[in-house]
Amino acid sequence: MFNSWHILTLSYLTEIIDSKPQNSIISYRDIFDDLAQRIDLHEDFLILEQNLTAFVTKDDDKNLIIRESIIEEALLPFRELMQILCLHDGCKRINPLMPSLSLGN
Fold first, then answer.
1. Using an 8 Å Cβ cutoff, are 83 and 95 in contact?
2. What is the pLDDT of residues 9-66, one digit of tens each?
3. Residues 6+ positions from 104 with CB-CB distance below 8 Å
4. Quick check: 101 and 83 in contact, CB under 8 A?
5. Smaller CB count within 10 Å for the chain: N or C?
6. Which 3 state secondary structure label does DSSP give 25?
7. How far apart are CA 81 and CA 103, in angstroms?
8. CA distance 103 to 105
9. Following DSSP, what letter does each residue of 52-102 receive, concatenated?
10. 105/93 Cα distance (integer angstroms)
11. CA distance 28 to 97
12. What is the pLDDT of residue 51?
């Protein structure tokens, strides 16, 4: 969905989350928005999102459904490593995420 290499996107994701205070709730929407400021969204993703959100009745929910789910899914490996706690509308960083991206882990 982002117009970049996956590892770059993942690196930015970890930088964004690691920059937030430990144990504070970070909304999935804020994380996605921060990523979108660093990396352009792919045109195909925007078209897909527009097509899928046509089925949503509330205007406020249109972008949230897909974008928040994407971030939550991207964080699953960090949750399994017990570095992050995924909640309904956001996450809490328990430990820094960046060290888990090193090639030795």
1. yes
2. 889 999 999 999 999 999 999 999 999 999 999 888 888 878 776 676 555 554 556 7
3. none
4. no
5. C
6. strand
7. 15
8. 6
9. HHTT-S-GGGHHHHHHHHHHHHHTHHHHHTTSEEE-SSEEEESS-SGGGGS
10. 19
11. 16
12. 79
Q: Check residue 79 and give its pLDDT.
A: 94
56: its two tokens: 């949503």
Q: Which of 65, 64, 73 is nearest to 91 (CA)?
A: 73
- Report the alpha-carbon distance of residue 105 to residue 101 in Å, rounded: 7
* Residues contacting 80, CB < 8 A, separation 6+: none
Task: For residue 4, name the pLDDT band (cuts at 50, 70, 90).
Answer: low
Name residue 35's amino acid. Answer: L
Contacts of 59 by beta carbon, 8 Å cutoff, 6+ apart: none
DSSP bridge partners of 90: 27
Sheet architecture: strand order including 25-27: 25-27, 90-93, 84-86
Residue found by looking up tokens 């996107």 in the block? 9
Cβ count within 10 A of residue 26: 21
